[in-house]
Amino acid sequence: VPSSYEAPAGVLKDKIILITGAGDGIGKTAALTFAQYGASVILLGKTTAKLTAVYDEIVAAGGPEPAIVPLDLKGATKKHYQDLAATIQAEFGRLDGLLHNAGLLGVLTPFEHIDLPTWQDIMQVNVTAPMLLTQALLPVLKLSTAPSIVFTSSGVGRKGRAFWGPYAVSKFATEGLMQIIADEYDNSAIRANCINPGATRTSMRAKAYPGEDAQKLKTPADLMWLYLYLMSNDSVGITGQSLDAQPK
Ligand code: NDP
Prior knowledge:
The chain contains seven helices and seven strands. By secondary structure, the chain is an alpha/beta fold. InterPro entries: NAD(P)-bd_dom_sf, Sc_DH/Rdtase_CS, SDR_fam.
């Protein structure tokens, strides 16, 4: 895997890519970037107004017309995901890329004070929802010649850190989910990898580090080389990896 990537113009032409949490932060930039490089993007997120704004921005820039899927991953059931798969099959005929980006931080708290409802919400949004969504979308992913599944991990998903409780555990689980899928589909065209974005200027980062000068952080745009690489055919054959979008 390269430590930088200069994406050729149109590298994602004719690709169909679904992005969760596409209304804000890293997911929003990923959606705009994938569309800029030619992909038709399916924008999934909780707040419809944010998704509509991303849709408008893509259309205004002359990108392929996106689709919008308002869905709260906290309450979504297997049926929601199955209906989504059927709609994708009917509208697009297949799915080439799946970016699991939506995430819930919760609140940083000492282990002794972790409360069960918060723990369960974070596991639901960060682990169970990506598992169910991947399961439901596998049939349409298999209709692609080079399907790519990308999960979003974190530094605290590789080494635990005090007070990061449920969020950190959910990111370890994300790494595990990715590895299991990569191993099970090792002899197929399906590839699965994790991106660790690293410290990035978004509202989630500001919530975790309220005192920090956000201007000193990398922006979502700085990370896009790796997102483009993993979604493009240039990464065919790369699977089971956990990669840093801000390599040391
Ligand atoms: P943001 O909080 O800026 O954006 C998260 C996105 O996920 C939002 O669009 C949000 O939608 C969506 N989302 C949250 N909960 C749900 C839900 N229940 N259902 C549907 N969508 C939901 O976060 P970032 O862009 O910073 O983070 C993106 C990913 O990167 C996350 O997985 C995060 O854990 C990871 N990450 C981020 C780092 C950073 O420094 N920023 C570092 C390491 C990892 P809405 O706006 O409508 O609530």
